[in-house]
Amino acid sequence: MRTLEEDLEAAGGTGGAHAGVRRARAWLSRAVEPGTVDLWRYVEDVGPVEAVRQLRSGAAPASIRSLAGPRAGQDETAADLRRAERCGARLVVPEDDEWPDLALHALTVAAVQEPLDRANQSDRTQALVPPIALWVRGPVRLDEVTTRSVGVVGSRAATAYGEHVAGELGHQLGERGWTVVSGGAFGIDGAAHRGALAAGAPTVAVLSCGVDRPYPAGNGALFHRIAETGLLVSEWPPGCAPLRHRFLVRNRLIAALTRGTVVVEAAARSGAQATAKRAQKLGRPVLVVPGPVTSALSVGCHELLRDEEFGATLVTSAAQVIEAAGSIGSDLAAPAERSASPRDGLSDLAVRVLDACPVRVGVGPERLAAIAGCDVLEVLRVLPALELADLVQWTGSGWRLAPAPRPTGAAP
Length: 412
Fold this sequence. Notes:
The structure is a single chain. The chain is an alpha/beta fold. 43% of the residues lie in helices and 9% in strands. It has helices at 4-9, 19-31, 37-46, 48-57, 62-68, 77-86, 101-112, 142-145, 160-175, 188-198, 220-229, 244-256, 271-281, 299-306, 318-325, 348-356, 365-372, 376-388; strands at 89-92, 134-137, 149-153, 179-182, 203-206, 231-234, 261-263, 286-288, 313-314, 392-394, 399-401. A nine-stranded mixed β-sheet has the order 1-2-6-5-4-3-7-8-9, sandwiched between helices. Strands 10-11 form a two-stranded antiparallel sheet. Helix 10 links the parallel strand 4 (179-182) and strand 5. It is elongated and about 105 Å long. 47% of the residues are buried.
């Protein structure tokens, strides 16, 4: 395999993502931490190949060189590509047809609108910036699997209630042809992924480390199953460790790659809340599952719902999630099912007469009128309809409530 400099020299002409552009973006994905506004703007202005040339030669502006630091003199690109090949991963770049342009468009708009002095702020994890490149492991196309997708996030230390809800949502969304996107963590993330897999649907795990490193290690088998039918996605090259700040950086991708974000359980301060806030800034619907008012792991959910300016929507089923995140007019949720009752549709007068009827002995219309507080003629007018509905019966001496029908198959 040629050196980086040789590939960069050969990077000429126009067209698809040729070797020079691909290797340049692979180098940038390791040299500079993702989510950096200044680097993204610089690459957009001069192109990835020229950006790498200037960074490695020291010709880049000082503010850009400081982002790479000592990494500017290193070149692990060939090793990164070999690691990716060994684990069945690939590098997807904006020049590829597989790049999810529509999904990440909101990040591009947000990055353009970022203040120019953003680099002077110490917390770069708050920036909403498109990725330079994405390392992807799995058999499906990234752009296709994220076309109809929903993010499901929540607490790592989830309750049994939260894991049950997340698993049901993942399964029901998968059955309806929607992709579940989450972070592959313990708790809500893992439950949502497993629910989707149980439905035979692809699911996407956005990682804060290399796609060849199962983190947390306890979810190694889960990551293997996801990679068989769905995707593992990361901005960091294979072999990179899951550093703490990277979890917050990757959260913006969960929000951007999906058409809505569902928060199942979240404490007062949590990464799930941070993901929800990024989704809201990107114009994506934020959907929240309520929990017990006594649960500390639902405090964050309830705070999102109480904030009227934030605009979160309460959801309790996959149908309601799809209605909020899907297409207007084509993904409407069915009304909540109600058990049918013989009293449905009765007038107020008929209900009062029915309530006046005794259970055992029959009474005359005059007695019913006195109890119901109406005229005898009104009682006589509604009794036939109540009898046809099997709600009252004539005993020979008066009217009483009809006995409840015997269940099918019950002994006489």
